[in-house]
Amino acid sequence: MPVDAVVFDIGRVLIEWEPERFYDSRIGPARRKQLFAEVPLHDMNLNVDRGHPFRESVYALAKQHPEWAEEIRWWHDCWLQMVPRAIPRTLRLMQALQAKKIPVFALSNFGAETFELACGTYPALRGFDRTFVSAHLKTVKPEPEIYAILERETGVAPDRLLFTDDRLENIEAADARGWQTHLFTSPAPFAARLVQAGLLTEQEAA
Q1: How far apart are CA 146 and CA 182, in angstroms?
Q2: Could you tell me how far CA 20 lies from the centroid of its own chain?
């Protein structure tokens, strides 16, 4: 099936997202595991992705767990250290697609404030033809509504979209809607998928 547009997740596809690695470096793996077991940091972050205010959400959780208050507040105060670098080859693939006039869209679970922080550090994230951020839409992957919004607003038929994401549940939700999908593990297999789909030549995907 031909592809009319490519849809990218952002975290762990275009930029690194490594909160566990950050906490390991600050408090060691054993205490990090204890922290993440006792405090619902990822649940809180998902609420931020739904549009809840960033600082207020983190600091409210810190108040609920005073024994971990300082470490919890790092989620806000040191957030950029959890996205320490871009993934350059995936960014080059995105730009190679755009150079061939193939639309590229972002579909990402991201907070409103954290997305602005990320764009300030990685300006290439502002380069999508259309950007669909969960906090702006008040729905998150893998909920069907966020996929439906992209379909409706872009006008691209589901079976003409190629979507890459690092989380299987997000891929499965897109599969269920008829999207073409690729589970992202590293840039090289995704580059090969773009070549296989006839979107890029091997030289363009190198």
Answers
A1: 18
A2: 16
pLDDT tens, position by position, 8-20: 999 999 999 999 9
CA distance 169 to 143: 10
Q: How far is CA 40 from CA 52, 63, 121, in A?
A: 15, 13, 27
Mean predicted confidence (pLDDT) in 145-161: 98
Residue closest to 92 by CA, chosen among 124, 58, 50? 124
Task: Note if the pTM is more than 0.90.
Answer: yes
Query: Which residues, including other chains, have CB under 8 Å from residue 134's CB and lie 6 or more apart?
Result: 49, 50, 51, 108, 109, 110, 140, 141, 146
Integer angstrom CA distances of residue 7 from 53, 66, 185 = 26, 41, 15
String of b and e for 70-81 (b: at least 16 CB within 10 Å)? ebbbbbbeebee
**H/E segment holding residue 180:** strand 180-183
